[in-house]
Amino acid sequence: MKSGEPIYLVDGARTPFLKARNRPGPFAASDLATAAGRALLLRQPFAPTDLDEVILGCAAPSPDEVNIGRVVALRMGCGQKVPGWTVMRNCASGMQAIDSAIAQIRTGRSDLVLAGGVDALSRAPLLFGDAMVLWLANWYAAKSVGQRAALLATFRPASLAPVIGLMKGLTDPIVGLLMGQTAENLAYRFGITRAQMDAYAAQSHARVLAAQRQGRFAREVVPLYDPAGRLHAADDGVREDSTPENLAKLRPFFDRKYGNVTAGNSSQVTDGAAWVVVASERAVEKHKLVPRGRIVDSQWAGLDPAQMGLGPVHAATPILQRHGLGLNDLDAWEINEAFAAQVIACLRAWESDDYCRTELGLEGAMGTLDTEKLNVDGGAIALGHPVGASGARIALHVLEALERTGGRRGMAAICIGGGLGGAMLVEKI
Predict the structure, then answer these.
(1) Is the pTM of this model over 0.90?
(2) Cα separation of 411 and 4, whole Å?
(3) Of the listed 78, 91, 346, 356, which one is catalytic?
């Protein structure tokens, strides 16, 4: 991100992150994004129609919400003249929406943008396999009773076995690995043990529970009522019984024979939405806004898809170099917890002379990140990872952490399926 006029983060909000429970959740993705966006806009001094545009990240929109950014903009009352559009960068779609807002402001096309991300992963589709699709195509093309009778004789019940859309989406098409298998690669590369993964996962749950009890999500989270009238007031995937001892009882999921990555030390499949209001200095003055923070810099990086979990290292390091900062010169870090092994691997990569020299082109190790500054209120292992929303959530929450702790600068960083990383440097005002 080039230097220039300041880009302000005025405010933000998100829904509770609701765990998928092997069935469609109570909210469509557009329901979630609309609810969080309405609540956020209601507390602003400007009208929804004053927005220059709405940009929404979504990795898995449903077929009836393909340009979900436009659908949600209209549902939020932004009016027909406010453009709404959708971006997709896998796990960082919400962060991409913010970065796209920055680009629009930098070029002078916009001054006031609502940017965020959403996914309702519980509603990811079940698909027919190719054999069933071809059979149906022939069935509908048949022009006589005889042709259909012949087709019935070729039908095999096994063709009805569904293809799980979410599993397809979480499999890298280049290297053929599920995202959890890439985490197994990192665990092997950096010698990360099962006990270390489970201890990290338990810490994530403990930190979220502490944050909930102390009301740290009160400003950030917008309660929801579902169509049946049930209240969803808080992130519901966190568990008090997620201790190292209990997590150790779970079986590996991605490599059942030799692996150590389990459902318990991985992020949860979740539904949720998150938004931030991004503004230029002109918009701040025009609408008399009181910004909470400033987005100082952003960076995208590419790396081996089979090692995708190290994306935060590759994206955050150039930002630190540009600003002459060390890891602990920042007051808060949010690294999205796709997997416990992946976060630990990022920390070890920065500690490794060899990795920093060969992969990052540095003279030596970056150093050891103080984990008391990292994901201080827990992360996606306990909260969940609604893929499109997580990048926006961590950008918002790193600012929340700075405000609460009195810190000044923080980094939000995320690994991205396909071998990418994204990071944003945020400064509290």
Answers:
(1) yes
(2) 20
(3) 91
